[in-house]
User: Fold this.
Amino acid sequence: MVSQSFQNQYLSDPDVQLMLKVSAGDEDAFEQLVQRYQDRLVGFFFHLIHDRTTCEDLAQEAFLRVYKSRERYEPTARFSTWLFRIAHNLASNQKRGAARRREIPLGNRSADDDFRPQEQILADKSALMPTRQLDSREMQDVVRSAVEELTEGQRTAVILHKFEEMSYEEIGEIMGLGTVAVKSLLSRARSKLKEALEKFL
Amino acid sequence: MTEQNHNLQHDEIVGNDDPQITELVAYLDGELPEQDADRVERMLQDNAPLRRDAECLDRTWQLLDSLESATASGEFTQKTLSSICAIAESGESGVQNTGRWSLKKLLPGTLLSKGLIWCLAGFLACSAGLMLSRKARREQPDSTDALILKDLDLYLRYPKLWRIPDVQFLKDVSSSSEPSENGDPP
Assistant:
């Protein structure tokens, strides 16, 4: 009874209606969904991965998964929540894959090699700040470095909240967390960002 | 849900957060119930350092607007739909051509095509060799025939020559038939 009322709640979502049409074999409905969400998906991946080609590939993969699961589709959440849950999983898998590739040693790097952690880049940028105003490009780099310093979970929560304007509840559904955990993630993320960017305010 | 939770570090979710900051952030995000929001507003009016913190957190949040963003390329929709079409079609043909799929499983396509190419090349090479050797044989006269042709004149005169008693006789004839000094024939 309860699940039915939840289902009814999601049935009012126009994108859920489109997805139900896709389930029934309506190809045009699927095209409409792709057009509605493609920019949001590519944007989401871009904030996490910063490589346009990879982002488009991942967005395409997300749509492909939606299409493949059309026959089993049940409207148990808003369509955007379901789609971004798929996207979040894809991004996490991609990050894990990239991390595994980085673990492969690339030879004998000495301590003096030109490897510069994000903290160092940020510190260098910070050192510039008191003397002059940063231009927009430099500011972008500084903000990006600060975001890169967040943990993966914090970063995802920030992107979903800031750019997708999602509520804590929706973020929780996407990331598989409770509202309290999302609150904590975002609080820590904002404190970290404030710490890193305070000098530029 | 639990699987996704494992992806996040435990201390990333549960930690020693400053409850005042957590509440302030939730207030800024519009995630507090009305009653709690009113309470935070009153706190902000009375507490100047907290107000500065709130302003700072808010401006930090606004700085994120400077981040580079991206949208889908012009051909994204078409590419996505085409790839899905291809998958859908391959799915259908997979059902219809079960026999062909099983053959493909047994004989990988590349191996089969390579084998066929090599067989064809071998056949062509053999045929060409055979044709060339036949042609050469046709052009070259038989060695026995050639020898007969070479000595044909000798064979034609053989009935006259076989009466010659010996070689000395021929030598004598040859020396006696040499032209005279004034060039008259013998």
